[in-house]
Amino acid sequence: MLELVDLHAAYGHIRALHGVSLEVRTGEAVAVIGSNGAGKSTMLRTISGLMRARSGTITYDGIDVTHASTDRIVSLGISHCPEGRRIFGRLSVRENLVLGGVRRPAKDVTVDIRRVGELFPRLAERLDQPGGTLSGGEQQMLAVARALMAKPRLLILDEPSLGLAPMLVEHIFEVIEQLKSEGLTILLVEQNVHHALDLADRAYIMESGRITLEGSAADLKHDPRVESAYLGFRA
Amino acid sequence: MSLSPRVRDGSVLLTGLVVALVALQLSGLAFWEGLAITLAIFIVLTVSLNLANGFTGVFTLGQIGFMALGAYISAILTLPQQAKSAFLPDLPGWLAGISLDQTIGWLPVGWIAATLIAALLVSGIAALVGAVLMRLSGPFVSVATLGFLVIVRVVLLNADTLTRGSRAFSNVTRYTDLWLAFGAAVLTVYVVWRIKRSSYGRAMFAQRGDRWAANSVGVSVLRPRLHAFVISAFFTAVAGSLYAHFLGSFSPNAFYFDTTFQVVTMLVVGGMGSVSGSVIGATVMLGLGEALRRIEDPTQLYGIGGIIIASVLIAVLIFRPAGIMGQREISLDRLFAPRRRDRDAERRGEG
Amino acid sequence: MNEYLLQQVINALSAGSLYALMAVGLALIFGILRLINFAHGDVMMVAAYIGVFSLASGMPLPVAIATMILGTIVVGLLIERVAYRPLRGAPEVALLLTSFAVGQILQNGVLLLTRLSGRPIQIAFPAPDVLSGVVNVGTLTISKVNLGSFIVGVVVLVLLTTFVSRTRLGLSMHAAAEDLDAARLMGIRINFVVAAAFAIAAALAAIAGFFYAAQTGQINPYMGFTPVLKAFIAAVIGGFGSLAGAVLGAYVLAFLEVLPTALFGIADIIPAGSIPPELHDFLAAAFPAHLSGYRDAFVFVVLIIILLFRPNGLLGGRTREETP
Fold first, then answer.
1. Between C105, C229, C232, which is nearest B311 by CB?
2. What is the CATH architecture assignment of A2-85+152-230?
3. Which of B107, B153, C133, C273 has the most CB atoms lying inside 10 A of its own CB?
4. Domain boundaries, given as residue ranges, for chain A
5. B residues 294-323 closer than 8 Å to C (CB)
6. Looking at this predicted complex, what is its ipTM?
7. Which strand ranges, in their side-by-side order, compose the sheet holding A63-64?
8. Contacting residues of B for C307, CB less than 8 Å apart
9. What strands lie across the sheet with A185-190, from one edge to the other?
10. What confidence tens digit (pLDDT) does each residue in B127-165 have?
11. What ranges do the domains of chain B cover?
């Protein structure tokens, strides 16, 4: 469904991506793992059109979207839940959700708000509260819910567990698992390697703007390199 | 004996300038002399504004207020006795008695004293204003300092016992000539250039790039900004005095937004952060302005000059925001250096 | 004495409405683009000129007003497309300077066109009949222009607030103002939202321009400078970035402005004998009449004080980064 070929990107003179290639097949969940500064978020921003690729291609369903504008990418069915949640704190939960579905017909949006409320009951209780008053975990849920409002076929999640207490992390991944079982294709960027590899079908390891390792999630879980770098030393 | 390139460059430029000025004065072409003096005044203004803005990256818009104060204060001080009693009848006693119109031969020492006094007073005001306003950031400094410009204007218009309000302040002795004007210009350029090259100047540039980073490394942000602001005000006031004693007659309208816009355009076109850029920018834009006036007058298309100049500013901001010189300085070496290819060829022993 | 104060209140309300219309336009654009659109005052000026020329050419009033609003919207959209969009993402200073340059172009353009059409620089604004004259309410005499300014201003502002909070476009503007990248990720077409903001701001400026011209009775190419500065002060007072704040700040500013005019010289207004002579002398000394000309300076001093101590304005808008 999504294919990156030899993608290069930079911030001014600072090169961030050095020829990244990966693919996400329809229906699967792919994880990209790496530490801070590895370039994961840069890659996602380039996919969504927030950043411009210097060279390389991004193809979605066969369509070249390398330099497509963000609004085109969203209308094609890609929804990006950004790092740090980035919800609209001054707007209410409901308004955040409405904005998530802003490109879709108005009547569909009302239906979807209800559906999303079933998926995230805590949000349903707080529909009219300003987003800024929600707790960290609730805000993360709102961010994911908002991304879902666009009815995407590919959901991109940038570090959904960042800064969340362990119990909330469990909850978030349960939700993502459920979405996956409903057939949603997922591209997940995470530092929390355990959960990411449990959820994903395949995974990539990213370091300093390059893909250094790839394979099925099961294989990578037992790969000694992954273990030592990201899962702590074995006893 | 070999001089450092910079001293050599400076001497060459200075000699060139002196020669040009002598030629100009001997030619007796009053129009060109006047234009040259105007250029010198704008050079002082632009270089000063560069110090206050271009170095620090903070954009103040109130400089011309200091120019106005410099003009009025110096003019009040140098006004000859009869003119004072005739035009400023209600001046407070101590002020009415002063008239700094003494000259020693050709040198108008009275005017120099008046200018210095005015510039120092204005610097004091700038220190107060700056202490207050330099804390602000981004576009808020710009608007607050614009507010200062308006405040100065309102004060000038209302304090008519001192300033004659909206009426023209005239009968000012026209002391300004080529030498005084360019003397001030050269002095300003030199001082600002030295500041730029000092560690002090480097601190200013540092905090221009990234306030947070500079602050975290211990580079004080407020002080360099404030010092730049005050020094800039000093020279701007000098420019005001030059202006007042060049025209002999002026009113608060000369020191408002149009002049501000003129100087800002010169600064941006020349390159914020480059002293030679300011000189170049002033020359280019003044020349352009004059040329446009030649078009406006015969065709009666008043306004077209303003449109073109403003468009130039927008074009520069869009396509070449660094201006002509960016932050670099002119070096004669690079101007007159043999082309790279030839030099390389020489080195390889060919040609 | 009471009448005098009430008269001042009415003046303040009327001026406040105009400031509000302009300030909201500034806040709309600043919220999304971080651009202080100094050309906004000149956009208002252009609107006034379109209005004058439309009326002079014999158009009936409603048509002239429609022309004015539409024409100004076109100007606003053009400016955005040609001058500001290429600078999207540029440092704030560049945007600010560009807005000055745009203002200069508008001023000189109008100057040029006026000259070419053979008219003088200052043109009388023929107040339309419905707005000339006065209305008598009790013992008060209110000019119809002032009344109209206030009523229309309030109505327009209410309509605008409804629009912004209820429609998806309005919501998109809020989102874009709060977090531009996140708004992009929603699939919001930023170019469209920005253009809409400019169009709305222009329309508001046109309405303000109409009443401003009607109040002052004449127009000139430089009439936009002070209003935009005042509008900026209003927006700052209310907390830049919030529309409600802009409106509040506008009325606060209007009342602040009236204060010096009301106070300075108050000793002369109060009928002798109604207050003890010592108080009268004190008022005359503390608030001498000739200082009322310093009104504009007073207003700017207030601006600077607010910027220093309450940079988030009275309503405390978004927190901006602290100055180190």
1. C105
2. 3-Layer(aba) Sandwich (3.40)
3. B153
4. 2-85+152-230
5. 300-307, 309-311, 313-314, 317-318, 321
6. 0.87
7. A14-24, A2-11, A55-60, A63-64
8. 136, 140, 144
9. A78-81, A154-158, A185-190, A29-33, A202-207, A210-216
10. 998 888 877 777 778 888 888 998 899 888 888 777 787
11. 11-257
